[in-house]
Amino acid sequence: MNNIKKYLQTRLGFFSLAVILFWIKTYIGYQAEFSLGVEGIIQQFILLINPIATTVILFSIALYFKSSKKAYIALLFVYAVMSILFFSNVLYYREFSDFISVSTILGVGNVAGGLGASTFALLHATDFFYLIDVVFLIILLASKKVTMDQRPFKKRYAFAATIVGFTLFAANLALAESNRPQLLARTFDRNYIVKYLGLNFFTAYDGYKAAQANQVKASADESDIEGVLTYVDEHFAEADAEMFGIAEDRNVIFLHLESFQQFLIDYELETETGESLEVAPFINSIYHDEDTQSFSNFFHQIGQGKTADSEMLLENSLFGLPQGGAFTQVGESNTFQSASQILGSEKDYTSAMFHGNVGSFWNRDNTYKSMGIDYFFDDESYSFTEENMLEYGMKDKIFFKESIQYLEQLPQPFYSKFITVSNHFPYPLDEANVDFPTATTEDNTINNYFVTAHYLDQAIEEFFSYLKESDLYDNSIIVLYGDHYGISNSRNESLAPLLGKDPETWSSYDNAMMQKVPYMIHMPGTGNGKINTQYGAQIDSLPTLLHLLGVETKENILLGTDLFSEDHDETVAFRDGNFVSPKYTVEGSSIYDTETGELLLDPSEEVLAEVDRLRENVSTQLSLSDSILTSDLLRFYTPDGLAATDPADYDYRDQLERMKTVNEGLGTAATSIFNQNDNQSTVDLYKTNAPELLDTPEMVDETQPAETENPDIKITE
User: Fold this and answer.
1) Is 454 annotated as a binding residue?
2) Is 484 labelled as part of a ligand binding site?
3) Which of 9, 321, 447, 596 is most buried, by CB atoms within 10 Å?
4) So which residues are the catalytic ones?
């Protein structure tokens, strides 16, 4: 023991203690926090040793300082930064089931304005473990339990420590390659890199790949678009003759159902008294309406960009990026050929986005300009008060109500989207707005999900009522869609009993099926509605919509296909490279029968060949999308008739006054619903039961634990 104490008083001894502490913490975190799919003793051994090499390399930086004080401070600094990075990944993984990319770190300023309580909701009581070792090391030095070794430390010893680190990493890499050949060359799952080479290596490797991507964009030229054009031509799906142009010249209204999953359709929550209550009765009625084309096998395809990725998919028929958010990385600088640009050029549509949150969130205020969106109504357009707000923006009922003053001034036909936020993780809602019971699982996030989903349903119903009263309804096509999952994979086993599933038998197949989201196209007066069972996803939305509006898309670069076409491709690619088809669901190396959910333990050569073919198609689609975005390839190709877009031409200030001025200038030729209503506002036609607009409710302080305010309403984890 005395020898250990004596060794700790040396610079190398304190260095060794830091390495051991960080190694132990990292390994425990791997096991407790991340689902890395470790199988067998070899992978367990690799997981055990993989933190050592990069930890030694990074900590050895401190050994190069001549000054004893600087050396110890440098070591503590590196230790603290690595600990914060590790803990940040723990929190990030709890929500996204993924690791933080360098692009996400660099773009955090574009999303930080909307974060806060949701991060707090991810914290667990045991999380102090991930930072207490930093405090422990500081106390050791501050209390003189360990004194700074004043003796000079030879650089050759510091260099030797670094060499030891790289040698250990080489051995780690060799062992990893023997267990997983071409680990880095064929990586499609970040879990693999972390499992085999560690979280520190993943961060460094991801940074290298991001820098490489920037180089790719700079070196791209016109020839790089040829492969994309060939793919689009070969995969083009002709429009269905009966559906093409069925909604021509109608207004388009997209209703973004935040975090709304397909399992909520027709779902009834059983209360503690045994009563069954419909979570979303109005949305269900639209889903089954004779004027609605609904899709029961429609999937989201988002990556780390979440809601912004869903917008990229719906607006451009392109995926988000494999790391970080496309809006934050390329939204401001890239050339796009979005729905707004196509409809504006082809059909003289005016476009508008409505979002009761800060415009800079996900860099929307800049990206929308690049996409040629005429108007963007963000937080500057709404009355933000404490009573009206949730963490991610304005409560849905108030948001819709306050949007009408802008909607009624839009020239028709218009293309619009309303991005709701009330059904956003962690699903808080003040008591005055709660009129639906919570579920009774041990997870409060799941419990409150049904409450906020019901509130969203009520808000959608109020908006529909306005559309009918204002005469916008009959001349519109209304698309309701879920942007992404609401309950993350890490919580699905807790949700399973509510879905009649056994948590013990919950599988990757079940996780894949949970990525279904609602997609319904409501076209009043058509009378040909039905529930479509073909497989599709968000990337298919734009070609489907354009064909319904009578727009030919043969020359457009769209990676999805028309859902109604006989040639529609039913293979659904997920951002991580996994996929679902009507026959097979593939998660990593596991193949499931899509119809039965059965894991194919010994698939035939025929099955393997078909899966390989589908995997290759998915890989091609994803890589082409990545090339389009990372190399900005659309700057090299413009379809006939598509007008060029200059972001500098768009200004999202004083928009209401500008719309009024334009309409007044047109006189009797003005087409807005305001002008068609004899220049009378339709705002009073909007009816809502939002308590904030009736009386001043007693609000729950959402920054405090719910139990301290109302034991019957639990709104945080």
Assistant:
1) no
2) yes
3) 321
4) 307
